[in-house]
Amino acid sequence: MTYLWIKSLHVVFVMAWIAAVFYLPRILVNIAEAGDEPAVKARLCLMGRRLYRFGHNLFGIAFLFGLALWQGWRVFPQALPNVVGPLHWIDAKLTLVVLLLVYFVWTGRLLKRSEQGGALPSARTLRLLNELPILLLLGVVFFVIAKPF
Fold it and tell me: DSSP string spanning the chain?
């Protein structure tokens, strides 16, 4: 039962973090489209900064629950099973998760640059880049469900 609770909490916090990963680039698109409206830009930057901070907290909690799922059997062998064993799908999944985290940090840096008066890529470019995490998430879900290797 402990394993199922940890897995459920991991999934919930991952979903919440992914929502932040998806929404922060959309805020950047809105900032890029705001033009010379300082009040709108300031409000969007505030929203983005809060979302970015919150997203990092969500990632940290999801990371801790994921670490417990992955390596918890070493500390609590009676309560948590070794769900990975010799399989390597977890390596591919973690690689994609790291890429998602890098993407999230990069969008946070774009937000910071915008707050400091720097230029953002065009709204169209930002929209195209907004599709990247969907592909990465699809890969993560595939590796978790199919466990192909």
Answer: -HHHHHHHHHHHHHHHHHHHHHHHHHHHHHHHHSTT-HHHHHHHHHHHHHHHHHHHHHHHHHHHHHHHHHHHHHH-TTTS--SSTT--HHHHHHHHHHHHHHHHHHHHHHHHHHHTTPPPPPHHHHHHHTTHHHHHHHHHHHHHHH---
